Structure formats: C-alpha cells, structure tokens
Automatic annotation (TrEMBL):
Ranges for region Disordered: 74-96
Gene source species: Phytomonospora endophytica
Protein name: Minor tail protein
Highest taxon of the lineage: Bacteria
Amino acid sequence: MPLDLADVLRRPRTTEARTALVTGVDGGAVTVNLDGGEITVGHLAAYTPAVGDVVLILATAAGTWYALGKLGATTDPGPNPPPDTPTSGTATFPATAAGSYLDGSARTDRRDVLQGSDPSGAGSNQGAWWYGTAITGTLAGAVVGAGRIWVRRLPGGSQGPVTVYAYAHTATAPTSAPPAIVDGPTAVGALAVGEAAWLPLPAGWAQSLADGAVSGLGLATPDDTGLFLAAAGLASDPQSGAVELDWSAP
C-alpha cells in the first residue's frame, strides 16, 4: 500500500538511502534494479512510479525499502499570479501646452505663463496651462485628495517674492481667447526670481481635475493689477505646469 512520507519517517530509524532504476510496476508493488539485482519496494502515495524512473529508495532498520520519488523531477508551480492592483498613489500629468494672453489676446511674442500688470504698461496678463483629457482619462472615479503644480519663476518684475495666484478653467487646449476662469484666482504661494516649487492646489481642485469639472490651470491676479510674475513655459522648463495628484481607489 502506498505510504506518505510521514509514515516512512515514523518507522524505525532509517539505515540507508540509495538510488535505483524502476524495472517493473504491478499495482502497488514496484520492482527496482539495485546493484544488478532486483528487489520489490513500496512507494510514497505522492509518487506515481513508471518503468525507467531513477528513484531514491530508503531502507528502514527492519530492511524494508521505499521509493520516495523520481530523481530530477520538478513540480510545475504554474503561472505567476498577477501583481496586486495598486489602491493608491501619486500620478503626475505634464502640461500639453502653455501660454499667455495680454488684455484678452493670445501672446505670440513669448510662450511663458504670465500674471499681473505687464511691465510694458500694455495691460494685464493671464497665463494658462492645458492638459488635454489625460487627467480625467486616468483618474475618473478615483478619490483625489491633495494636488500640486510645478512653477518656476523667471526674471521680470520685483526681484523679491511675488504671490502666485492660480485659477482653474475648463479648456483642454489653447484657444484664441483666454480660458474662462471657473475658480480662483487664489494665492498658492510666493516665489522670488529663479525659484521653483511644487505649489499646493486649493482644496477641491485636485478632485475637480480628476472628475473633469475643470480641465486646466493658469495664473492671473484677482484684480488684474497685481504684481507681475513670469513663470517658465514648456520651452524653458519641460516640467512647467506639471500636476501631481494624490489618489486612492473609491
């Protein structure tokens, strides 16, 4: 009768382990060639003997032999399980376009993102970043908490820190007219010339970006007369306007 390995180990202390060649199988009896002679041995229930197998056999102190299994046999572990699906993380979305408007007309002289009264005295600037539909396409249905936008300040205006005012809009790509402001402008930090930072988005904006309620961000002073600030556009900083959003599964 085939045995489990535990049954064999419960027998009196083993005295010898050898290798042998299976030459015959008759029900539960296995014939093996050992040192030129044939003997009949038992086998473990987990091993299905076949003629031609080279097996490890174990002798007990009582002189009984058992075939433990085929040498060189391996068990196929099957395919690797799929990786766990992440349930939270931080997603980064680069801006697909950046630019500014001066008194309502698109600026063609520079592609930076500007806010406030223009140093030339020509009027007031409104800058914008656009992201296409990548944000909502990736995070629709997710719970999004904090968000941040990357802003690098260029020379121009006051050398000291100037308040950065951000706003939210619904345009996915540049248009001839400035995008309509649907939230803000709201102060999100202050930068001196040459400084760059991830500035925190106001509460709720990150979720609105994921839901598609807003599609883009920009810079503009609340009363159109605030201090001028020039933020790098994509030509001088490919990370300009990039957005980080902290998300979790619903």
